Amino acid sequence: MAIAFPDLPYPHDALSPAIGAETLHTHHGKHHKAYVDKTNAAIEGTDLADASLESIIAAADEKGDKGLFNNSAQSWNHAFYWHSMAPSNDGPSGELKTAIETAFGSVDALAEKLQSAGAGHFASGWVWLAADGDGKLSIEETHDAGTLAIGGKNPLLTLDVWEHAYYLDHKNVRPDYLKAVTTKHINWDFAAENYARGSIWSYPSA
Hints:
It catalyses: 2 superoxide + 2 H(+) = H2O2 + O2. By secondary structure, the protein is mainly α. The chain folds into 2 domains: about 60 residues, Fe,Mn superoxide dismutase (SOD) domain (Helix Hairpins), CATH 1.10.287.990; about 100 residues, Iron/manganese superoxide dismutase, C-terminal domain (minor pseudopilin epsh fold, 3-Layer(bab) Sandwich), CATH 3.55.40. Helices cover about 50% and strands about 10% of the residues. It contains 8 helices and 3 strands, in the order H-H-H-H-H-E-E-E-H-H-H. Strands 2-1-3 form a 3-stranded antiparallel β-sheet. The radius of gyration is 16 Å and the shape is globular.
């Protein structure tokens, strides 16, 4: 059983101008697909061939297999990232909104903190909104292929701060990309589902 390469959950132009169609065609269709293809090539014929992507990531991390970890973690991170965004949103509500206000003061304050964390993140990586076992929210950062697919935090949403995520649309001005996404395109329904479930999102199967 191969790891699936999931479709985007919206048309390629749905996030424009924050993220344009050309960026998504390249980022999803080439970068993400390459990670999935390399993961599948690495696990073919091994004891991980039928494992879930989360199990593959954990095994690669435990074994110190950096190549497999990078490709499998990036496969997961990208799928989670696509779902973290939406063409439009009405803001969070219910328990998630209450948790945001408790942790950050307001939804706007959270957006500003995500923007600040992303702008200040050195080089490539990811910025996450996550919850701990008690439902308390925090902003987390991982470098390069680092992921919250494993570990003790429950990721609710993520922002990709690798340069290829925004360069075609915003050149080297990462803060413009972050502001556009956090103010207009956060998928709060997805974040709320992850928060309510209380466990780490599962990568879609083929």
